[in-house]
Write a structure and sequence with these properties.
With about 270 residues, the protein is of the alpha+beta class. It has helices at about 1-15, 30-80, 85-115, 130-145, 165-180, 225-235, 240-250, and strands spanning about 125-130, 150-155, 160, 185-195, 200-205, 255-260, 265-270. The model has no long low-confidence stretch (mean pLDDT about 85).
């Protein structure tokens, strides 16, 4: 019963400070080896989840620090010179408004991810016309990206069962990224076709592309292919993570292909309804 005694002792001593506790498998009898291995695998999962949570909190704090610092800086400037200088007053008001909106956007995204992690994210699913949704998306994209070439091909009457607003939110993220990293005059294409019992939305651009070594990580939270480039273009590195959550919650999947200097293609598969 050495393994059981060790289990009781280590279970009583587990805390956030020593999640690396494991049972010694070498001293286990054949009957208890699998039991010890199961306990160790459970501790591996707990430790990994705890590390992921700590990283998430650290990243979120880092992202919030920048707008808070900007707001504090402009508040000090207002206090010193804003009462007499109308230009400083106006500049400070605009900056504070912009950074507060940036913070609100970040908080909304963090709450979305937290609800998903806690499995309290509510999706209002219904059967709807996916073709109409994508046509809306194309029209909006032509307004937003008037200096880009927006190509589209939408097969009619493709039906999907899902949360229309959330699916549009996910697709908007892919399209916005395509616009963000595509220069004026370059092409962004949006297609909707049926394929293998799925509605397939393809978002393709002729922009800067993503280095191959970064592709496995682009859906990670707070991940930026190039941190300085990401900050220059705006955003928190949460968009693709949120889009992936929405697609997976609908039983879908995402395929991505990219070549540096030539562009990126995302294919989003959602089950037909």
């Amino acid at each position: 019963f050495g393994v059981l005694d060790e289990l009781v002792e280590k279970a009583n001593n587990i805390s956030s400070q020593n999640l690396n506790l494991r049972l010694n498998v070498n001293d286990s009898t054949d009957e208890l080896v699998e039991f010890a291995l199961t306990f160790n695998r459970m501790m591996d999962r707990i430790e990994k989840a705890y590390e992921k949570m700590n990283q998430f909190v650290s990243d979120a704090s880092h992202e919030l620090r920048t707008p808070i610092s900007v707001i504090q800086g402009y508040a000090r400037m207002l206090d010193r010179w804003g009462k007499e200088d109308k230009d400083i007053l106006q500049e400070s008001i605009q900056a504070i408004k912009k950074e507060s909106e940036n913070m609100q956007d970040l908080v909304d995204k963090l709450l979305f991810i937290a609800r998903n992690d806690k499995d309290t994210l509510v999706l209002v699913k219904d059967r709807f016309n996916m073709s109409e949704l994508v046509e809306e998306l194309v029209k909006e994209t032509r307004l937003l990206g008037a200096d880009r070439v927006i190509e589209s091909h939408v097969e009619p009457n493709i039906m999907v069962n899902g949360d229309r607003d959330r699916i549009k939110q996910a697709l908007r993220i892919f399209v916005d990224n395509a616009l963000k990293y595509t220069e004026p005059g370059q092409t962004v294409s949006i297609k909707l076709t049926p394929e293998d019992n799925c509605a397939v939305v393809t978002v393709k651009d002729t922009g800067i592309g993503i280095p191959e070594e970064h592709l496995p990580n682009i859906f990670d939270r707070f991940y930026r292919v190039d941190d300085s480039r990401g900050r220059d273009k705006g955003g928190h590195g949460l968009g693709l993570s949120i889009a992936r959550i929405i697609v997976l919650r609908h039983g879908g999947r995402i395929k991505v292909a990219s070549k540096l200097g030539e562009g990126t293609r995302f294919k989003i598969y959602l089950p037909l309804g």
